[in-house]
Design goal:
10% strand; 48% helix; six-stranded mixed sheet; elongated
Length: 733
Amino acid sequence: MSDGSKWQEDNARFLSAALAWLRLRLETQALRESGHWHSVSELPAPATQPQEPSLFARLKGQKPSAAAPRASRPVGLLPPADKQISDEQLAQAAAEIEAAAAIDPPPALHILAQRFGLSRFESDVLLLCAGMELDTAVAGLCGLAQGSPNRSYPTFALAMALFEEPVWEALSPERPLRYWRLIEINQPGAQPLTTSALRADERIVNYLKGLNYLDDRLAPLLVPVEPAHGVMPLPASQQKAVETILGRLEQAKQTARLPVIQLPGKDSSSKQLIAWQAANALGLHLYRLPAEWLPGNAGELETLARFLNRESILIPVAFYLDASEADKPAAESPESNRSSALPRFLSRISCLFFLDTRDVRQLSSSEAITLDVGKPTRAEQQTAWAQALGDSAADSPALLAGQFNLGLPEIDRIASAVAGAAPDAAMDDTRTRHERLWDGCLASTRPRLDELAQRLDAKATWNDIVLPPQEARLLHQIAAQVSQRAKVYEEWGFSQKMNRGLGISALFAGDSGTGKTMAAEVIANELRLNLYRIDLSAVVSKYIGETEKNLRRLFDAAEDGGAILFFDEADALFGKRSEVRDSHDRYANIEINYLLQRLEAYRGLAILATNMKSALDSAFVRRLRFIVNFPFPGLAERREMWEKVFPPQALTKGLDFDRLARLNLTGGNIHNVALNAAFLAAKANQAVTMPFVFEAARAEFGKLERPVSEADLYWQEPKPVAESELAQTKGAA
């Protein structure tokens, strides 16, 4: 028999002895309440007393009437006629309790009394309330002991009559029975507290029976925190954080309450892993509580805090409060009232709590430990990739760690997913193992960006874009710097010399349709990275501070996934700072300042496109590493664009590219004309010919409100040359 099963049997034996002693106490009180009569025949006649007239009758001078019988107790509820309880029986029952309690560990009632600081009287009160749930005879005995079958429930008054050395302080809301909600009180209306019904809390009754599990009322709010693929060794930088936490907790062991472990930083997965390692070293189970689930009502918040504190006393548990998304809300945000619940909640917590927050919070409690937590270093991530992938990893660890900034749980999950899918021939298509790992990293970081930006499916290649040689070389330089940034920054040590300017930012300036978006797609396709167009409507908020919060989330998520951020119409977001005339100007300038600082610290590639370069802030332009001007295409460039604009599958016939190149259009306009011409030809069930192209071009010029000569859009099919004329021409030659 296991130790757990043996203790369960011993605890059940103790409860049986305790309930037997409780029944004797109740029966003794029932006999005392009934006058110690031992048979029904000994019951005296019902007592009588004069019946007082009503107040109205007394005012009229009416005398008291004849005596009226007083209601007597139902005979059937009295103790048996031969029931006699001696002091020796009570002493024997108490001795049996003492004998049953001599177990190791002690019975659950004794453990609970010791942990919550219950007095002997308070323990007996709790046993009386729990007896209602454990023994069906207790309810009836409570009614007899209180002289009424309608009062078949425990009360403080009954407990004071039953047990020795009653303590009035037990009724106080500051004493453990009421403070820790070990019992519940049903006090309707103006009924006195001493005669109100008491009931043991269900969680406490189960604990007394030896069933110790998480409170059902807390289970919907708490999520167990466990490593997805078992315990993994932490890198040195994060293991040091665990050791620091354990050391600080050891120092705080003598304090009245445990400090809150505040973990600022943007990597929640690493913070959860560190918190789990620290809790596991202390023998505690870790549960996550999202901050947005905290109740806003002060009473409900107090109840939740007490239940969590009580749970930490009953079972070895620690809690992880995830407030990363609720960090520093805007002053005018509709969620500001709810967010104020967080400091109130933490001020009422006395158990071990880890606080996940994006920035350092000023807590009202002085007992707080703040420890910055970041992702593993690039070298540690490379080691983690190598360990997860094994000896056949080749260059993948260095390439993946150089491009993506991931925590250990994500690295382990992606590596396991790829390893599990590799034997499947249907999954293992033409892509190599490295390509599947790369795609897994891209997919892992996508959900964080999709809320604030629009993902562009990059299909354009170097063969699709037409630019002058100088601009084309700049685009190749941008792509090369992104692919080699890990080597230069980490291996060659430039990151140790620089705190800012590690990102790669480029400005694409030119008229609409000159190829700025296509150039961004080409670079993203070359690097096999996600390309996101920033949606200003999702980023900019009317609430003060929310725009900066959204931009921070955007840059953080993009940096982890190595995504390329494409700010189209950048002059709307990065415009010149204006003179401060009112509060709106001041906050607009603050947003621009934040953008400039965040863009300079961003370690990925940020591309800004504008057709109004002069509208950009000069301080912003100074921070750019590349400026690529997209000029209006010349005759040669336009001819090349016309040659490339029609896919090989498109049916074309007799297109004169030299003639088309004379149309003064940008690459974007040429694409529109070609597409519209294809639809015209498809409707006519013919190949794309010059008349269709000119008809589409005429509509495009009209859309642009630009005049065009009809002579430029006139096309006459060349007359077919007869064979005789062709022979004469050849003879003359």
